[in-house]
Amino acid sequence: MPVVSERTIKKDVRLGRLQKIMKEAAEQSGRGIVPALHQIVPFENAVGDAKTYEAGFLFDASGPPFEADMAKEKHSVAIFIGPEGGWSEKELHLAEKSGLFIMSLGLLTLRAETAAIVAAYVATR
User: Fold this and answer.
1) pLDDT tens for residues 37-86?
2) Which H, E and C letters describe the chain, residue by residue?
3) Domain range holding 10?
């Protein structure tokens, strides 16, 4: 789900375009199910909604490296990818307090689009 955080730069997301990209990516990868795309929500609401998933991961360079075993055998996983400006300290604290695991995707700083793809891949291995 698209999330608006304190440091979100691009706030005019076209959901129709995102849905089309997700559908095409699912077809190309041979995935039988297109992931659900939800309405844009504030970060605080998204963190609260993440409690309905079996596990939740917020990716940030400050966290330890992500280990795929953490998501293994989970049927539902919430993944949070940071905005261009990164997560604020307040958001990191709220995420941790809400039970999300703060993890890193490695030493490189990835574009949000690339990070989302990498995170989804490593969480489903």
Assistant:
1) 888 899 999 999 999 999 999 999 999 998 878 878 888 889 999 888 88
2) CCEECCCCCCCCCCHHHHHHHHHHHHHHHCCCCCCCCCCCEEHHHHHHHHHHCCEEEEECCCCCECCHHHCCCCCCEEEEECCCCCCCHHHHHHHHHCCCEEEECCCCCCCHHHHHHHHHHHHCC
3) 3-123
Report the C-alpha gap between 30 and 7 in whole angstroms. Answer: 34
Q: Specify the amino acid at residue 65.
A: P
- pTM for the predicted model, two decimal places: 0.81
Task: State the CATH number of the domain containing residue 9.
Answer: 3.40.1280.10
- Whole-number mean pLDDT of the chain? 86
